[in-house]
Write a structure and sequence with these properties.
The chain is of the alpha+beta class. The protein folds into five domains: 91 residues, Phosphorylase Kinase, domain 1 (2-Layer Sandwich), CATH 3.30.200; 215 residues, Transferase(Phosphotransferase), domain 1; 63 residues, Trypsin Inhibitor V, Chain A (2-Layer Sandwich), CATH 3.30.10; 64 residues, Trypsin Inhibitor V, Chain A (2-Layer Sandwich), CATH 3.30.10.20; 69 residues, 2-Layer Sandwich (Trypsin Inhibitor V, Chain A). 29% of the residues lie in helices and 25% in strands. The chain contains 18 helices and 32 strands. Strands 1-2-3-4-5-7-6 form a seven-stranded antiparallel β-sheet. A three-stranded antiparallel β-sheet has the order 8-10-11. Helix 4 packs antiparallel against helix 10 and helix 9 runs antiparallel to helix 10. The protein is elongated, with a radius of gyration of 44 Å. The N and C termini lie far apart (128 Å).
């Protein structure tokens, strides 16, 4: 990576200008290819992931698999490389908007335009599937629509070659590949997927384009994934009765829970969409339901389609995106008379009998010759063993079985020899290789280790580590609590093992209990989740005896549920000991009684030594009294009685 006047340039060729977006493991920038002087999009792997060999390998394979997919409806990949400690992919720059932005800004799409967009996406997926790649993340955010209406599918970043059995099931932390809103049921279950999974996801996109909402929604990805597996979506015409029945039938066939009930290939889906657009009879069976009363539904009233959507998606229909008027008169083609159907059936039966006789005749002639009969070997890869064997034997071949480890389901054909569509002698042997399931290994015990140590051990054992924090008061923060699958369990090599590590104990905010009685404060704390509440007494001049002064730790602080929370309860005003000041001078006594309310009285004394000294005090010295209490002192005052008597009246 180089820099010219602050401009970042990768490999001395790709000049980065501005960021276009951010994905799960990379950022995408608008750039200029200086060599060819054209705009390109550069996807740059996050530096934090560039040190992870698994992520880098997936990033490299993304570039290689996508670079082989040259199709008008697929975003082209031109180059890939390494720069400044990270990795990047150079892609075709498509000027337009994502389908997600169009749906967000302009609302749902006219049914015909939705069918056109879906057909183009299906064309892209069909091409990828024929080249052994399943997209796995079909969603509006990965579909780009140009100003002239061209549709392009982007981001094969989590796709993987169907035949690549060594592929790592690399996921985000605590998740499976894909986006939950558009998951197929098999993705949601974590089961192996094939091209029909993409057809389900595309059905979700078509559903959203025509109804304005996704088939399933929920508070979390797990809740949505559960609905994909267990629940059926609301039929589109319940949301808007003006939608064509045929398009609804196509949508719901894509959304079948069982992959066998969906369209077999993306090309089959595209062909049915073209039939719909041409007004021909479709292959999908319309949904049988009671007549819909538009006034009875409260889900969504039929609405028109804004012209902004027409501009954004590049569609130029003749009705100006008004209401669905032309679809309200839609009816199924009239049923042919029963007599015509019987005549046609008899005619077909006679033709079949004639074809069979001709086949036997030709075969007899062929058997008399010396040349062997050549037969096209059917494609049985992906079929169950019994079904594949029956198909080959029906063509006159002898079948031999072999097995090999694979991430495909057990007993599914993963290879055949001779390969499909080759000519082979009738009666010759065809070997089918069946999946024995993935190779497995025991999950190592990483309990008590750090996350980094555990991840390294799992990688060395042949697994892909994933990390998930979990609150735990008994295990030190940052150490592994357990794994899923558990230690010692057999798991498929290259499968994900989730590491659950301690994020420390669960903490609770300490509630404010100041001014409550001790009993009420205890109930408040235990109600908040604390299990160890203690109390201690403390004098207070401000808080009434028996009420809570505060807590340790203080209110508002976070503490584990099993932490000790101490209630500080008022024992009343603080008590102090009264100093003993008897015999002291008045000034000395007042100094010692600082903080008390000192009152004095005088008492005559004929002892000169007691003059000005404390003769008595109340309370006495050593008594416990409240701070600021009154202490009364009796002060001696000397009187010379002899002098007083000698100077009385009548004395000389």
């Amino acid at each position: 990576m180089s820099s010219q006047q602050g401009q970042v340039i990768f490999n001395g060729r790709y000049e980065l200008h501005r960021r276009l977006g951010r994905g799960g493991m990379a950022e995408v920038y608008l750039a200029r290819d200086q060599m060819l002087d054209r705009p390109v999009a550069v996807k740059v792997l996050f530096p934090a992931l560039a040190t992870d060999a698994g992520f880098v390998e997936r990033f490299r394979r993304e570039a290689q698999s996508a670079a082989n997919l040259q199709h008008a409806n697929i975003v082209s990949v031109f180059d890939w490389g390494e720069a400044n400690g990270t990795y990047f992919i150079v892609m075709e720059y498509v000027e337009g908007h994502t389908l997600a932005e169009i749906l967000r800004d302009d609302g749902r799409v006219h049914p015909d335009r939705a069918a056109e967009i879906t057909a183009d996406i299906a064309a892209a997926l069909g091409f990828a599937h024929r080249n052994g790649v399943v997209h796995r993340d079909v969603k509006p955010g990965n579909v780009l629509v140009t100003a002239d209406g061209t549709v392009k599918v982007a981001d094969f970043g989590i796709a993987r070659a169907i035949s690549d059995h060594s592929d790592q099931n690399l996921t985000k932390t605590g998740s499976v590949m894909g986006t939950a809103t558009y998951f197929s049921p098999e993705q949601a279950r974590g089961a192996p997927v094939d091209p029909r999974s993409d057809i389900y996801s595309l059905g979700c996109v078509l559903y959203e384009m025509t109804t304005g909402q996704t088939p399933f929604s929920g508070e979390s990805a797990v809740a949505i994934a559960y609905k994909h597996v267990q629940e059926n979506p609301v039929s589109p015409r319940q949301i808007d009765p003006a939608l064509p029945e045929t398009l609804e039938a196509i949508t719901l066939k894509c959304l079948a829970k069982n992959p066998a009930n969906r369209y077999p290939t993306a090309q089959d889906l595209r062909a049915d969409l073209r039939r719909y657009l041409d007004g021909a009879r479709i292959l999908a069976e319309p949904v049988l339901a009671p007549p819909i009363d538009p006034g009875a539904t409260n889900v969504m009233a039929p609405t028109g389609y804004d012209n902004r959507t027409a501009v954004a998606t590049g569609w130029s229909g003749d009705d100006g995106y008004g209401d669905y008027g032309q679809y309200e008169d839609y009816t199924q083609p009239e049923e042919e008379p029963k007599r015509s159907r019987w005549f046609l059936a008899v005619l077909i039966l006679l033709l079949l009998i004639l074809a069979g006789l001709l086949f036997l005749l030709v075969r007899n002639f062929a058997d008399d010759g010396d040349d062997p009969t050549l037969v096209t070997v059917p494609n049985v890869v992906g079929q169950p063993a019994d079904q594949a064997e029956a198909a080959l034997e029906a063509e006159g071949f002898r079948v031999t079985r072999a097995t090999d480890t694979s991430d495909r389901p057990v007993d599914e054909v993963i290879n055949q020899d001779p390969p499909a569509n080759e000519q082979a002698e009738e009666g010759s042997e065809v070997t089918i290789t069946l999946s024995a399931g993935p190779a497995t290994a025991a999950v190592p015990d990483v309990t008590g280790r750090t996350v980094d140590e555990a991840s390294q051990l799992l990688i060395e054992a042949g697994f892909v580590p994933s990390q998930q924090p979990e609150e735990n008061a008994d295990v030190e923060e940052g150490l592994v609590i357990r794994t899923d699958p558990a230690a010692g369990a057999d798991a498929a090599l290259n499968s994900t093992v989730t590491i659950f590590y301690s994020s420390g104990p669960d903490t609770i905010a300490i509630p404010e209990v100041r001014g409550q009685s001790e009993n009420d404060a205890r109930n408040t704390l235990t109600g908040a989740g604390f299990t160890n509440v203690q109390a201690r007494q403390e004098a207070s001049n401000d808080v009434e005896e028996g009420q809570v002064i505060g807590t340790e730790p203080g209110a508002g602080q976070q503490a584990p549920a099993n932490a000790t929370i101490t209630l500080i309860v008022s024992s009343g005003q603080s008590q102090v000991s009264v100093p003993d000041v008897v015999g002291r001078t008045e000034d000395n006594a007042r100094a010692l009684l600082q903080g008390f309310d000192v009152q004095t009285t005088d008492e005559d004394t004929n002892d000169r030594n007691q003059d000005g000294r404390v003769l008595q005090q109340n309370p006495p010295g050593g008594a416990q009294v409240d701070e600021g209490s009154t202490v009364t002192l009796v002060i001696g005052r000397f009187r010379d009685t002899e002098t007083t008597q000698g100077n009385g009246p009548g004395d000389d």
